[in-house]
Design a protein that fits this description.
alpha/beta; Alpha-D-Glucose-1,6-Bisphosphate, Chain A, domain 3; 5 domains; eight-stranded antiparallel β-sheet; 22% strand; globular; Phospho-sugar mutase; phosphoprotein; magnesium; A-D-PHexomutase_a/b/a-I; metal-binding
């Protein structure tokens, strides 16, 4: 506690604002636990950059923690691009303080002689990724906490290729930040270096989204869509993209169309949560819509609902939409003629069905760690291969490589293209998904996420991972565990034969058990939230679409047995 108090007292110097010092003095006098949580560590970069609660302290998002990160990034950019005119672009979402924090970040960059393009109003994350290359920038920043609760904000860093930072840049940037004192931050803006941007980049991004997501599907005039932006940034792009692609029957959920950092109509602005799309689904049932689409606050994730075999709206998960989108893109690529250098991409905790799909089309499926920065890195690392598309289970997808991050804007258009085309041919999105299960295997996944807040929560998550490593699971639902992939040690072990293999991707605190019959369980602490996540994947053969419900019910029962057996339910 002495070290924490010393760190907190260092924020009482004249460098810090008066209101910050007043709050810290109150914490020291009246709230030792609150003081501890705010100063026991520095805010860290995770899988999605830096994300956390807003407030004073080293473990909070505020003017000083973002200023220090920006100063460190400025120093690194000036070292890497010495002698060049360095340019960065900054966007921000609908969250509280996002606009003022974005201006603070712009001020620090400009104070360091770096040219800044700052969006004049909130914009989507995919547009920021696009803008990095469109404006020939060396880096990009977006102020967002994605789908986290209202009290959170965050800071994502993008590199010259438009993808989020990865090794070695991330480590070098973190070192540059850690070598600084807060007093080293230069907040004195050079306004001549800050240029406000909006419509020119908007137009280029919307045109590119339509070009990459529009496949001239049939039946658009009869296809009805309900769309909700969940109070976020996608309202600035998706309605216009759909309109230009020929979708005129689009109903917006007006109550959720105004950007609002309080997210007043939802418990969580996360399309992974069924409750978030409940208002849109209700409207879809009222008007007889064919599809519901909802996006998270920064518009990199999308959730969709389509009509099932009974004609009722059913929410699909990220694995299901990823399979359908990837298959559609592969079909279109196949029609044009495969070149033999195509690849699709997924992540280690997403459905293995992507690998089965790739095998059926004779293309490569590259599998990365969780986080789209790793998929973006694949595109950069394999310039002679053609990236078709790819995604991850957490409701993210990327269409081609013009955006180098999850892109709910273009993916929304692609989902509508698939569904409209299927309907025009007398089928449906849901029926086509079932056919995929017949063709490639019936895979079912389930995610269990446990929240463990604060210092004690972090320790509990750490101990859970230690326990899984030191006392490994030997059997899951009657099938012996065959492989244990430990991404922390980069070793895969066949526990039945003793054979080991090296895992050739960067280290990460992830543990995956796979049984002899293909059942899989992955354990992974979140890189951006105080959570530990458990991912389950099981599969069975589906010989005919008519047996979909029967086999699906059997798989549901199996997942429930496994969750109960592992005491995670």
């Amino acid at each position: 506690m002495d070290a924490i108090l010393t760190t907190a007292q260092s924020w009482l110097s004249d460098f810090f604002d008066a209101e910050v010092k007043t709050e810290i003095k109150q914490l020291i006098a009246n709230d030792p636990e609150g003081l501890k949580d705010r100063f026991y560590k520095n805010m860290e970069f995770g899988t999605g950059g830096m994300r956390g609660l807003m407030g004073v302290g080293t473990n909070r998002i505020n003017k000083y923690t973002l200023g220090k990160s920006t100063q460190g990034l400025s120093n690194y950019l000036k070292k890497v691009y010495a002698g060049k005119e360095i340019k960065v672009v900054i966007a921000y979402d609908c969250r509280h303080n996002s606009d003022t924090l974005a201006k603070t970040v712009a001020n620090v960059f400009s104070a360091n002689g770096i040219k800044v393009y700052l969006f004049s109003e909130l914009r989507t994350t995919p547009e920021l990724s696009f803008a990095v290359r469109h404006l020939d920038c060396h880096a990009g920043i977006v102020l967002t906490a994605s789908h986290n609760p209202p009290e959170y904000n965050g800071y994502k860093v993008y590199w010259t290729d438009g993808g989020q930072i990865v090794p070695p840049q991330d480590g070098a940037i973190i070192t540059a930040i850690e070598n600084l004192r807060y007093e080293d931050i230069n907040f004195k803006a050079n306004e001549n270096l800050i240029e406000m941007i909006d419509t020119e980049v908007d137009e280029a991004f919307i045109e590119a989204s339509v070009a990459n997501g529009n496949f001239n599907a049939a039946g658009k005039d009869k296809f009805k869509i309900v769309f909700t932006s969940l109070h976020g940034t996608s309202i600035t792009a998706i309605p216009e993209v759909l309109k230009r692609a020929g979708y005129n029957n689009v109903t917006l959920i007006e109550e959720q169309s105004k950007p609002d950092g309080n997210f007043p109509t939802v418990v969580s602005p996360n399309p992974e949560e069924p409750e978030a799309l409940s208002m849109a689904i209700k409207k879809a049932e009222e008007i007889g819509a064919d599809m519901v689409v909802g996006t998270d606050p920064d518009s990199d994730r999308l959730g969709i609902a389509v009509r099932n075999l009974e004609g009722k709206m059913e929410l699909l998960n990220g694995n299901q939409t990823m399979i359908m989108m990837t298959k559609f893109l592969l079909d279109n690529r196949k029609e044009k003629g495969m070149q033999g250098n195509e690849f699709i991409a997924s992540t280690i905790v997403s459905t293995p069905m992507m690998i089965a799909l790739a095998k059926a089309y004779g293309v490569e499926c590259k599998v990365a760690l969780t986080g789209f920065k790793w998929i973006a890195k694949m595109i950069k690392d394999f310039p002679n291969q053609h990236f078709v598309g790819g995604g991850e289970e957490s409701f993210g997808f990327m269409v081609g490589d013009f955006v180098r991050d999850k892109d709910a804007v273009t993916s929304t258009l692609l989902a509508c293209e698939i569904a409209s085309d299927a309907k025009a041919k007398g089928s449906s999105f849901y029926k086509e998904l079932i056919q995929c299960y017949v063709d490639y295997g019936f895979y079912k996944e389930k995610l269990i996420s446990m929240t463990k807040k604060g210092i004690s929560g972090a320790e509990e998550i750490k101990q859970m991972m230690v326990d899984y490593r030191e006392n490994p699971i030997k059997e899951i639902d009657g099938s012996k565990v065959e492989w244990i992939h430990d991404y922390n040690t980069s070793i895969a072990t066949n526990v039945l034969t003793g054979k080991t293999e090296t895992i050739d991707i960067p280290k990460s605190n992830v543990l995956i058990y796979t049984t002899k019959n293909g059942t899989r369980m992955a354990a992974r602490p979140s890189g951006t939230e105080p959570k530990i996540k458990f991912y389950f994947s099981i599969n069975a053969e589906l010989d005919h679409a008519d047996n979909f419900k029967k086999v699906g019910s059997e798989l549901d029962k199996k997942i429930n047995r496994i969750v109960s057996e592992l005491k995670l339910g």
